[in-house]
Amino acid sequence: MKNNLLISLVIGITVAVAIIGTNRLPAGDPPTAREEVRLQVDNVPLTPEQEVVALTLYLEARGEGANGMYAVACVIKQRSVERGLSYDQVCLEPKQFTVWNGKTPADFNDGLDQDTEVVKAAKFLASTMDVVNPEIIGNANGFFSGDRPGWIEREWVVGTYGNHTFWKEPR
């Protein structure tokens, strides 16, 4: 499962990585589609709702890189579909994402100010949540790192990526 998940995530995030990796347009050549999208992403500020999602992705999975953040984005989207909530509402639900426990977006005012590839990937993913495909991670609606919490049944686990294990609670 891990190799299939990795391959799927690589395919799903390739455009983002390619866009983020393009720092400037080549002189004299018209911009490619990737460069056009990158310019649009860099120049469009995130909405407050997208900032919550970007912060969630960054704070929950920055150590897993763009692919790990994509996997967490899949969980956010799956929960949004299942619960009928917006993406930011999913992120801010009590006790759902550890980074928000007892915190508000104001506690992370400078969290996305860094000019790093990981922050750019989090922003890109937050601005493109509508095309994130939860099927890539088996429509998982949760994840954990470390030991499996006792309340998560073994048969719910659908795969592992990096330090995160993804699970789908039956509904």
Structural notes for this entry:
The chain is mainly α and 171 residues long. It contains six helices and three strands. It has helices spanning 2-21, 33-43, 48-61, 65-83, 87-92, 117-127; strands at residues 142-145, 157-161, 164-167. It has a three-stranded antiparallel sheet with strand order 1-3-2. Helix 1 packs across helix 2 (33-43), helix 1 packs across helix 6 (117-127) and helix 3 crosses helix 4 (65-83). The longest helix is centred in the N-terminal third of the chain and has 20 residues, at 2-21. It is globular and about 40 Å long. The two termini are 22 Å apart. Mean pLDDT is 79; it is low at 1-40.
Quick tags:
single chain, mainly alpha, three-stranded antiparallel β-sheet, 171 residues, globular
As a whole number of angstroms, the C-alpha radius of gyration is 16 Å
What fraction of residues sit in β-strands?
5-15%
What are the low-pLDDT stretches, counting only 5+ consecutive residues below 50?
1-40
Number of helices: 6
Overall body shape: globular
Q: What's the β-strand tally?
A: 3
- Give me the side-by-side strand order of the main sheet: 1-3-2
Order of helices and strands: HHHHHHEEE
Biggest sheet descriptor: 3 strands, antiparallel
Helix content: 40-55%
Mean pLDDT: 79
Task: Determine the structural class based on helices, strands and strand pairing.
Answer: mainly alpha
